[in-house]
Write a structure and sequence with these properties.
The protein has 121 residues and is α+β, with helices and mostly antiparallel strands. It contains 4 helices and 4 strands. It has a 4-stranded mixed beta sheet, with helices on one face.
Protein backbone atom coordinates (compact mmCIF):
# COMPACT_ATOMS: atom_id res chain seq x y z
CA UNK A 1 0.00 0.00 0.00
CA UNK A 2 1.43 3.35 -1.01
CA UNK A 3 1.75 6.18 1.46
CA UNK A 4 -0.97 8.23 -0.25
CA UNK A 5 -3.41 5.32 -0.11
CA UNK A 6 -2.64 4.73 3.58
CA UNK A 7 -3.19 8.42 4.41
CA UNK A 8 -6.46 8.49 2.47
CA UNK A 9 -7.65 5.29 4.12
CA UNK A 10 -6.95 6.70 7.58
CA UNK A 11 -8.72 9.95 6.67
CA UNK A 12 -11.87 8.03 5.69
CA UNK A 13 -11.81 6.05 8.94
CA UNK A 14 -11.23 9.26 10.94
CA UNK A 15 -14.23 10.95 9.29
CA UNK A 16 -16.42 7.90 9.93
CA UNK A 17 -15.41 7.84 13.61
CA UNK A 18 -15.92 11.59 13.98
CA UNK A 19 -19.50 11.28 12.69
CA UNK A 20 -20.27 8.90 15.54
CA UNK A 21 -18.16 10.44 18.30
CA UNK A 22 -19.15 13.97 19.25
CA UNK A 23 -17.87 15.80 22.29
CA UNK A 24 -20.10 18.07 24.35
CA UNK A 25 -19.75 20.17 27.46
CA UNK A 26 -20.92 17.24 29.60
CA UNK A 27 -18.72 14.70 27.81
CA UNK A 28 -15.87 16.20 25.78
CA UNK A 29 -13.87 14.20 23.24
CA UNK A 30 -10.40 12.85 24.02
CA UNK A 31 -8.70 13.01 20.62
CA UNK A 32 -5.39 11.31 19.84
CA UNK A 33 -2.92 12.20 17.09
CA UNK A 34 0.42 10.56 16.54
CA UNK A 35 3.21 11.38 14.17
CA UNK A 36 6.39 9.46 13.55
CA UNK A 37 8.16 11.24 16.40
CA UNK A 38 5.49 12.43 18.84
CA UNK A 39 2.05 11.70 20.25
CA UNK A 40 -0.58 14.30 21.15
CA UNK A 41 -3.83 14.18 23.14
CA UNK A 42 -6.55 16.84 23.47
CA UNK A 43 -9.79 17.01 25.41
CA UNK A 44 -12.11 18.97 23.11
CA UNK A 45 -15.58 20.41 23.68
CA UNK A 46 -17.02 20.21 20.16
CA UNK A 47 -20.13 22.21 21.06
CA UNK A 48 -18.12 25.33 21.86
CA UNK A 49 -15.08 24.44 19.74
CA UNK A 50 -12.60 24.84 22.61
CA UNK A 51 -9.77 22.65 23.83
CA UNK A 52 -10.28 21.94 27.53
CA UNK A 53 -6.93 20.21 28.17
CA UNK A 54 -4.00 18.94 26.16
CA UNK A 55 -0.71 17.11 26.52
CA UNK A 56 1.95 15.92 24.12
CA UNK A 57 5.36 14.34 23.96
CA UNK A 58 6.73 17.66 22.69
CA UNK A 59 6.51 19.24 26.16
CA UNK A 60 9.84 19.95 27.84
CA UNK A 61 9.35 17.74 30.92
CA UNK A 62 8.44 14.74 28.76
CA UNK A 63 11.28 15.31 26.31
CA UNK A 64 13.84 15.14 29.11
CA UNK A 65 12.70 11.64 30.05
CA UNK A 66 14.87 8.74 28.95
CA UNK A 67 13.83 7.24 25.62
CA UNK A 68 11.53 10.15 24.83
CA UNK A 69 9.62 10.16 21.57
CA UNK A 70 6.67 8.32 20.09
CA UNK A 71 6.86 5.10 22.10
CA UNK A 72 4.50 3.28 24.46
CA UNK A 73 6.15 4.63 27.63
CA UNK A 74 5.81 8.21 26.44
CA UNK A 75 2.20 7.58 25.38
CA UNK A 76 1.45 6.42 28.93
CA UNK A 77 2.97 9.58 30.39
CA UNK A 78 0.96 11.73 27.95
CA UNK A 79 -2.24 9.88 28.95
CA UNK A 80 -1.60 10.45 32.65
CA UNK A 81 -0.80 14.12 32.05
CA UNK A 82 -3.89 14.84 29.94
CA UNK A 83 -6.07 13.07 32.55
CA UNK A 84 -4.61 15.18 35.36
CA UNK A 85 -5.11 18.40 33.40
CA UNK A 86 -8.68 17.46 32.47
CA UNK A 87 -9.51 16.67 36.09
CA UNK A 88 -8.16 20.10 37.10
CA UNK A 89 -10.74 21.61 34.74
CA UNK A 90 -13.52 19.46 36.22
CA UNK A 91 -13.79 16.94 33.37
CA UNK A 92 -14.25 13.35 34.54
CA UNK A 93 -16.12 11.71 31.63
CA UNK A 94 -15.00 11.82 28.00
CA UNK A 95 -15.60 10.00 24.73
CA UNK A 96 -12.50 8.49 23.13
CA UNK A 97 -11.57 9.44 19.56
CA UNK A 98 -8.75 7.21 18.39
CA UNK A 99 -8.29 9.38 15.31
CA UNK A 100 -8.43 6.57 12.77
CA UNK A 101 -5.60 4.64 14.41
CA UNK A 102 -5.93 1.01 15.45
CA UNK A 103 -6.63 0.65 19.18
CA UNK A 104 -3.29 -1.00 19.85
CA UNK A 105 0.16 -0.08 21.10
CA UNK A 106 0.61 3.64 21.73
CA UNK A 107 -3.07 4.52 21.37
CA UNK A 108 -4.09 1.82 23.81
CA UNK A 109 -1.33 2.79 26.26
CA UNK A 110 -2.49 6.41 26.21
CA UNK A 111 -6.14 5.37 26.75
CA UNK A 112 -5.30 2.99 29.60
CA UNK A 113 -3.16 5.64 31.33
CA UNK A 114 -5.93 8.22 30.97
CA UNK A 115 -8.37 5.75 32.57
CA UNK A 116 -5.89 5.08 35.35
CA UNK A 117 -5.55 8.87 35.77
CA UNK A 118 -9.27 9.15 36.51
CA UNK A 119 -11.04 9.75 33.18
CA UNK A 120 -14.07 7.59 32.42
CA UNK A 121 -14.79 6.36 28.88
Amino acid sequence: MKAEERIESRRRVRVRIREKVKGSGARPRLAVYKSGRHIYAQVIDDASGHTVAHASSVEADLRKAPKAGANVATAERVGELVAARAKEKGVLKVVFDRGGYIYHGKVRALADAARKGGLEF
